[in-house]
User: Fold these one by one.
Assistant:
Number 1:
Amino acid sequence: MQQIIFFFIRNKNFLLFCVLFLLSLSLIVKSHSFHKSKFVNSANFLSGGIYSLKSNVTSYFNLKEKNNLLIEENARIRKVLEGFKESNLIPELDSLLFPSKYNFIPARIINNSYSKTKNRLTLSSGAKNNIKIDMGVITSNGIVGIIDNVSKNYATVQSILNTKSQINAKLKSSYHFGTLIWNTNNSNIVQLVDVPRLAPVVLGDTITTGGKSTIFPKGILIGTIKDFSLGDDENYYNINIQLFNDMTNLEHVYVIENIDIQEIMSIEKGVENEKY
Amino acid sequence: MKNIEIFRNIFRFIILILVQVLLLNQINFLGYINPYLYILFIIIYPFTGNKSFLILLSFFLGLFIDMFGDSGGVHAAACVFIAYIRPVILKFSFGVSYEYKSVKINKTGFSQRIIYISILVLIHHLLLFSLEIFNIDHIMLILKSTLFSSIFSVVLILSTLSLFNRKGK
């Protein structure tokens, strides 16, 4: 017994090191799986509070530029709205009852990373603003990422600049779709893979979201085709996409809430239960 | 440790974390190069201080940086590792008797200091980027990030040391 105790005392540094090192490795492994990075993330009281303090100061620096962006967006939306009015395609409706499947929640980015291989952003809105895990995040220019952690006042977003991110996307001109990934080389260029060879891929074409999931509506802008090549098996295109968003300079974003998600989930669950 | 020393260490711990997450993590020089100044805490922790306590403190230091950076536990792992091997590096760079001569970092020779700091920084960064990227395909990215960030960190750590080196002591 004494021998054992002496052994522990003699090697206490090594044992302590082993325990803490394994603990951190398990945290790393946990953070690599999408929904389990609950414990150590920046959507908590302490880091969220400090980041929003910082953001309160730094957000003044580019207020002018952000205002211009908002004005541009307003102008664009106004134009679309006028088009609707003139064509009288939809009857007059109470704006509260407007038949949209999606709800947009405004949020502010208080921390942004883009130089790592697994980038995340922190938002200054959380569960109390009705934000939940798996909602999409966009700006007026295009997509940003997907919510992966939520606390009461803050939320973290898994950016599209994250090697774990896989988002369904399609060509705007046709219905050929592929998977949007990131190869870590450039923070303004992402890759679209698994696009079938039959697809009419042209330089400069626009890529939008595919709408095949409950996260993003169809037709949210992503970017334009920068260059493309056939993959190794010559059946699929690998496309480099220049993003519309400047991922290094983001401030105001919208979180997309899908109102029908419960219904979709329940019906998909029903189908799956039938299978087995 | 005397009381004043304990307070100085607590103060250093908090300030280094804040400087790291609010200022240095936002630099992104050339797109991916960030200095990691916060390991200065481990570097200048008193050489004769309690080693187990240093390992524990390093873990929490890394964990805080991870929390702010949403990086899982990569900083914690790298910090714990360099805290554990620090006595070996100290012996290597300052000679076997560093513990009895009560060496202080500001009084050591410049070349010895550079060797000590560079080794710790290189090991820390290599482990940090390998764990963060965690993909053998990106080995060039790991080495590139390690090299450039290390240079940046070492320069910053050396200048911080000389900046806060009080004269007359």
Number 2:
Amino acid sequence: MALRRGRGIATIEYPTGMNQGGDPSQAWIKVKPDGHVDVFSGTVDVGQGSKTVHTQIAADMIGVPYDTVTMNNFDTDTSPVSFGTFASRGTFIDGNAIAVAAYRTRQRLLEVASRMMEVDPEDLEIADGDVAVHGAPERKVSVAEVAATASWTYGEMIAGSGAWMFPHVEPDKETGECEPHAAISYASCVADVEVDDETGEVRVTKLVQVYDVGRAINPTLVEGQIQGGAVMGLGLALLEESYPYYPELSHRGPEFGAYAVPGMADLPELKNVALEDPDPVGPFGAKAVGEMANNAQSPAIVAAIHDAVGVWVTELPARPERVLRALDESRQPRRDGRRVIYDEHLAVAAVSTAENRAEGAWRFPLVSE
Amino acid sequence: MKAVGASLPRYDGIDHVTARSRFVDDFSLPGMLWAKAFRSPVASARIVRLDTTRAEAMPGVHAVITHADVPNNVVGHQEVWGIAPDEPLLAEHEVRFVGQLIAVVAAETEAEALDAVQAIELELEERIPFLDVRNAWDAGQPQVTPDGNVFFYYPDQPQRQIRKGNVSEAFAAADVIVEGVYRPGAIEQAPAEPAAALAIPEPNGRVTIHSTSQALYYSMDITARHLRMPMGMLKFVGGTVGGGFGGKIDTKTEPITAVLALKTQRPVKWRHTREEEMLCSTTRAAWHVEIADAVTHDGWILGRKTLTLHDAGAYMMTSAYACSKHAFHLAGAYSIPAVAFNTFVVMTNHVPTAAMRGFGVTSASFAVETHMNRIAQVIGMDPWELRLKNANRVGDSSPSRVVYGNPSTVSTLLAAAEAADVELPPDERAMTNAKRSGALLPAHLVEQQREPVTHPLVWRDNHPALEGGV
């Protein structure tokens, strides 16, 4: 028995927004007479912190302090459409809709301030809650004064609305040709593991993860996505399985006691790096990090297991039983001329042969043909 | 001070960790009824007899609903994309998976609702389930749907397919052909907060629904279809959810509680038990991916053929979407000039599968990256070098012919090597994401080179979306 160490790498890409587009988001913003800003969009914060990110985008786009902005996403009577919190679209697509609404709110503040100050709107700028004249920062009024004047003196409202959508595309039936996404994020992962060659247990000792997120609107929340994704990636690489005898139905785990998700004790040393290569379309250059954060670990871990003990486990999760079986069988790929054929026992051809098929029936186009 | 780029504390973080945030299950109303579900005990059966009479007469019971109570019982989660609806909210003449909803009780207390569920009588004619996607077209297999076990994207073409370049030439020119099979399993989204809904009938005929959905408008659309009510008659309340990971796109608790609320004219709450969450709600799909790559001794990937079978489970949910999305990512972060990808949605008697973090792409990334590591082993090349050579660069094009404008495969790889203290040779360390040239532009990659175009939706001050008034 020995603990064997191994290292594996993986590099991935992931799209931002729904595949084939067509998933709109909308937002509207009003400014209270005291200058406080209310943002409305039918988004859902699933715990990733979208309310925070959206508030940050609105604050900077308008030019007001973050703590004067409130995010309202609690019902569909007051908040306009967000297609949903999925497809890694929250920061990018919801965020762009909010940025557009905030830009228009800012234009309205400038219009009203221009009347108050008798200065052309083009000569004004908004920052830190003040509207000031370019080059003459002492000539300024606060956003609160502008909002109060609009409400009580001019009898006007300061508001802005906006929407954003990557238009729907249909792939070509024959070739699949189309541009299916608004942006792509990239990541690389290095996994270090220890494999017990007697018990088949795999312990991930370290994950190095690098994500290009375009722009980290909130670096702590980006780090949270990467850490949370790593834990989920460990689960799908090593532990979690809805059908332990897939495709058979038996022994499904009905509660956490019988369905293993990673715990803190499973957590390896994490070294996370966020690169910022701004996206030309995303709000402030941001693109997605949410979903992709659980995609790179499993191939890196499987490669590390191979590096450690010389076997490939390509059915996930790589639980101890699968690792031990692979060690026992120590399968080698079949070589046939130029072909190197792994996993023949798992392929469609292993269970669905010509004799099984009805005459003239459809068949899967095998990659070996 | 700029907010963007600052690690500001999470908007509702303190409320969450001090248990002051209010989630759906924290809301209760006077007169509220509790719902409990009666579900299929088997994976495939014809329903011979369903009798709720005894349950209806149980103490505290206000309603027992079956499919006949749902104004529009069969609705699809992808109707908005033109995929025909196939999933009954409550089973009609058959059940196709363990845990499928058959009837739901609303009673004064959870215990009374549960007692009534146990009094529902069901007679089934059990059938053999179909479980292994690889047998989808074999003779004599059980049929999951009246239309067979494989979904058709087009009347004469079941698969989503991607074709680019000359695949036979690529395979003829290969030094080595590496083949492998990758089977990531089904897993549970496992959010801390199970799905829950509270539907309240309003005096003006509207229905307010407190929802754990991670997509309020999307779930409201599905609920409105089931109820045959305009969306405007519904008000969804939510927006703060205890984890979703894709599982809370599945919209069941909202229409069920709404039907019960309208029938009883009482507020009705239903929350999944952990067992229901684990056993009866959607999972991430299991996938079967086969890859064959045409490779040269010096580490170029000339061509790739793939076959994907996506285990959709018993109803379509969002599988056609996922399997299509999957197809676009089977080249991974690399430039492969000749590809033939075939991806199939296969129906089985597993619990319907639906969204989970990385939807459709997690499986592709696992398959592609494990295959890359195998290729490195077969040709005896360092896996970093293999990746850095083939990594997509500005001006390369994707399988669906998207021209990469700002890929960062090379930069993330180099940053990962540095962070992991991996010593790469100087020529690799000097690589960038910039357009290919010289030794990095071999003959087989010339034809797929394009000039990156400025994206029409680029964010700028004079963006068309910014024009116009409020």
